[in-house]
Design brief:
By secondary structure, the chain is an alpha+beta fold. It has a domain of 96 residues: OB fold (Dihydrolipoamide Acetyltransferase, E2P). It is built from 14 helices and 16 strands. The strands form 3 sheets. Strands 6-10-11-16-15-14-13-12 form an 8-stranded mixed beta sheet, sandwiched between helices. It has a 5-stranded mixed barrel with strand order 1-2-3-5-4. A hairpin with a 3-residue loop joins strand 14 and strand 15. Helix 4 crosses helix 14 and helix 6 runs antiparallel to helix 8. It is globular and about 85 Å long. The protein starts with 6 loop residues before the first helix and ends in a 20-residue tail after the last helix. The structure holds one RNA strand of 77 nucleotides.
RNA sequence: GCCCCCUUAGCUCAGUCGGUUAGAGCGACGGACUGUUAAUCCGCAGGUCUCAGGUUCAAGUCCUGAAGGGGGCGCCA
């Protein structure tokens, strides 16, 4: 195909030279001005048509959504509103777009819910192209952050033979005929005849594999798709999502919290530095959306203010036990405003409690640590008091839990006992226990929900809008 | 898995106590327009009121069920 200059590139290209651009028409004004977008950046290039040089049939076919190629001189703009514009010598229609049937009329301000139902076309909107550019920047920033700090990227398996990851319900992977599966002598499905010769699932976490790697490479992280077959119907859950799981040897819970806080601040700053136009657009969009809400429900801070606030403030770190004290004595608890009143130590915190701590009490990100062992996973390191474990949850305003992690139990005997207490099948996990048998070291790690981070940074409120094609109960469209 | 709400034109939404012929803005379409910025101006068309039953002299409006969508809770990242 003929060489083209990308629209992002052309804004900093020398003027008074000839360029060819290709893209999709956003609007066509006055039979003369095309706002052209190729997704490389938020901004549209103004392509100016000469009515005398351009065939009337071509002009008729320049409609919103059509793809075109235009060649001409880049000049300083003769009008206000943009610095440069392309004076088209030739315009070619690459793909027509019938306005009668094209589902996206940008001037109509289609709702997010409507666009979600036409997710194959929603990339064409300002909001979604901005979201996915920011999503990319965050993904790249994650690799950069870890690479710059000496971490190695580990590809943990997507298909797992382990049923014991303990992070949630799993999707089964099989090539057996589900109408007529082979049976063993007891009448159960005989997985020895399945593709892998055993029962397999899609991964719910790469953590255990990351631990194995960290106990040799010292600093590793995973970044891959994760699958949970839970019937979760919320604005913060997906059945298929992406998770980042760093794991660090010779590290304790404090090191883990430092890493998590540094990473989140780095990533927010990275997006502010690399995607200022996208963030500015998303901020404006949010502001307009909130105009329709009652005053009390509007955000106290703009998107940019909120992101800067997060970078500049140290996250509040406190133990579960301290959090319970605060909650027990809080006004909503005393006035019976909590749906689940805080009665004492030991109860799991509900999202209303987390939200109170983050949004009302501290008004900034909070890291809660040292939870009761009964409400946390078997692999978390037991504290000296024997009642709590070295867990940490990073809680963000509006999002809730964005990171969950812990210092891991590195002592063989203690880990074995915890597994037995929690009915983890020890024989199937011998490979995991081996790392504690041979040269075990203190180590720690966490899981970051990638889409929850994208939600926070873009100011969106539904997780289904920050992944291109969301998978959730009852839906795997596109 | 539990609870609540919504579904009216292509989109966003009004539609009063059940009462005659179903309303607006935007978009689309036709026209005008060589400096527009969600262009503007003039004109015009567009409806299985989500679907299936029911109540009623009469249903967009009330009842039951289904489908689709949204929100809250739980599980978590």
């Amino acid at each position: 195909m003929e060489k083209r200059t990308g629209i992002k590139e052309i804004f900093s290209a020398p003027v008074n030279q000839t360029y060819t651009v290709m893209g999709w028409v956003r609007t066509f004004r006055n039979n003369m001005f095309i706002a052209l977008n190729d997704g490389s950046t938020m901004d549209n290039l103004q392509v100016v048509i000469d009515g005398e040089k351009t065939d009337a049939d071509i002009i008729r076919r320049i409609t919103s959504g059509a793809s075109i190629k235009a060649t001409g001189q880049l000049i300083e703009s003769q009008g206000k509103g943009q610095t440069v514009e392309l004076l088209a010598e030739t315009v070619e229609i690459l793909g027509e777009c019938d306005p009668e049937t094209y589902p996206i009329q940008l001037k109509n301000r289609p709702s997010l819910e409507y666009l979600r139902e036409i997710a194959h076309l929603r990339f064409r909107t300002n909001a979604f192209s901005a979201i996915f550019r920011v999503r990319h920047a965050l993904a790249y920033g994650i690799h950069k952050f870890f690479n710059d700090r000496g971490f190695y990227y580990i590809h943990s398996p997507i298909i797992t033979g382990s049923d014991a990851e303990g992070a949630g319900d799993m999707f089964q992977v099989t090539t057996l005929d589900i109408k007529n599966p082979p049976l063993d002598e007891n009448g159960n499905i005989n997985y020895k005849e399945d593709f892998f010769g055993k029962h397999t699932n899609l991964t719910v976490s790469g953590q255990l594999e990351a631990e194995l790697a960290a106990l040799a490479l010292s600093k590793v992280y995973t970044f891959g798709p994760t699958f949970r077959a839970e019937n979760s119907n919320t604005t913060r859950h997906l059945a298929e999502f992406w998770m980042i799981e760093p794991e660090v040897a010779f590290a304790d819970l404090d090191d883990n919290m430092d890493l998590a806080e540094d990473m989140l601040k780095y990533l927010i700053k990275y997006v502010l530095d690399t995607c200022p136009e996208d963030i500015a657009y998303l901020e404006k969009r949010l502001l307009e959306e909130e105009k329709n809400k009652p005053q009390a429900e509007r955000s106290e801070m703009s998107l940019t203010q909120k992101l800067h606030f997060c970078i500049e403030q140290p996250f509040e770190r406190l133990t579960y036990t301290e959090a319970i004290d605060i909650l027990k004595n809080s006004t909503p608890n005393k006035k019976g405003k909590f749906q689940f009143p805080i009665e004492g130590w030991g109860a799991d915190l509900q999202s209303e409690h987390e939200r109170y701590l983050v949004e009302k009490h501290f008004k900034k990100p909070v890291i809660l640590t040292n939870y009761p062992k009964e409400i946390k996973a078997f692999y978390m390191r037991l504290d000296e008091d024997g009642r709590t474990v070295r867990a940490m949850d990073v809680l963000f305003p509006g999002i809730g839990e964005i990171i969950g992690g812990s210092q891991r139990e590195e002592r063989y005997d203690v880990l074995l006992q915890r597994m037995q207490e929690m009915n983890i099948p020890v024989d199937e996990m011998s490979w995991f226990l081996d790392t504690r048998k041979y040269g075990s070291v203190p180590h720690a790690g966490y899981g970051l929900g990638f889409e929850r981070l994208v939600l926070f940074v873009t100011g969106m409120t539904n997780i289904r809008d920050v992944i291109p094609f969301p998978r959730f109960p009852g839906s795997a469209e596109f």
